[in-house]
Amino acid sequence: QVQLVESGGGLVQPGGSLRLSCARSGSIFTINSMAWYRQAPVKERELVAAITSGGSTTFADSVKGRFTITRDNAKNTVFLQMNSLKPEDTAVYYCNMVARPSTTIGGLYNYWGQGTQVTVSS
């Protein structure tokens, strides 16, 4: 069974930094992309950053220049480095993986972690 487990959230002051980690357990045939989404209270879930299997990255305009997404394939882990944090970055951050589970299952599936809270406040 595939699981994504996030860690690294917490309370940080404005201007501070946090590093989120998302560790995958369970086997996957191929990964199409890994991403971080976030959802603030009374708001829809939004894409924060994504990285494809080829290494291409995408960022929301609101985090460009402040956030970086990287991966460690050997450790099945993706990271979100968040710098210069602002109160509006406060949200639950979710790890997402789009992948093909096995050779016997066609198509791509979405996998989600349980989320980790990030609170930016003085």
What report would you give on this structure?
This protein is an all-beta fold and 122 residues long. 0% of the residues lie in helices and 55% in strands. The protein contains no helices and eleven strands. The chain has strands at residues 3-7, 10-12, 18-25, 30-39, 46-52, 57-59, 67-72, 77-82, 91-100, 109-112, 116-120. Strands 2, 4, 5, 6, 9, 10 and 11 form a seven-stranded mixed beta sheet that branches. The chain has a four-stranded antiparallel beta sheet with strand order 1-3-8-7, with no helix packed on it. β5 (46-52) and β6 (57-59) form a beta hairpin. The radius of gyration is 14 Å and the shape is elongated. The mean pLDDT is 95.
User: The biggest beta sheet, please?
Assistant: 7 strands, mixed
Overall shape: elongated
- Overall mean pLDDT: 95
Rg, Cα atoms, Å: 14 Å
**Percent of residues in β-strands:** over 45%
What is the tally of helical segments? 0
The overall strand count is 11
Q: Uncertain segments of ≥5 residues (pLDDT<50)?
A: none
- Work out the helicity level: under 10%
- Calculate the terminal CA-CA distance, rounded to whole Å: 40 Å
Secondary-structure-based class equals mainly beta
Order of helices and strands: EEEEEEEEEEE
